[in-house]
């Protein structure tokens, strides 16, 4: 299995495609630029199986509707943010100089931590709130890789001054859910460059 990072939209939010030799793929956080993203997926010959969201801020969900409709695939989101896909006031797009982002409800609402299997892909879900109440991270043990959304960045952490954010909760999430992973685990954040758990334990000034 491999992955591809594609920064999308005005905030350059990282969309990740996880794919196998058969070119089946999962789409994580399709944040915008729907035409560019769909063209890339089709150009590579990928067959998406699902859209998975680390959280539902507007810059992570801007292309969800177009991707799900193009391939008729389900969308996964934590139940704490089940209304955010439909409500620009909740997902934050109403407060920005852009077209409001809204769409249909997700098909699957994540209710607890645990293993998730979609086709040939197996992962673990960690609840990592703090940046937003329904933030989750997806851990691929077989690849020593975790998608941290906007919880943990290379040298930084997510902001906590938005709706439902809480700094203490975020710090607890990072320490209790992410920093317990093997130090060689690759961290794929919602913005910026990848890092490792070990690098962040050693040098991240915010934690």
Automatic annotation (TrEMBL):
Which UniProt key words apply to this protein?
Hydrolase, Metal-binding, Zinc
Which InterPro entries does UniProt cross-reference here?
Answer: MBL_Glyoxalase_II, Metallo-B-lactamas, RibonucZ/Hydroxyglut_hydro
- Superkingdom: Bacteria
Pfam families annotated for this entry?
Lactamase_B (PF00753)
Domain Metallo-beta-lactamase residue range list: 12-191
Q: Does the keyword Zinc apply?
A: yes
Its needed co-factors are: Zn(2+)
Q: Does the keyword Disulfide bond apply?
A: no
Question: Under which name does UniProt file this protein?
Answer: MBL fold metallo-hydrolase
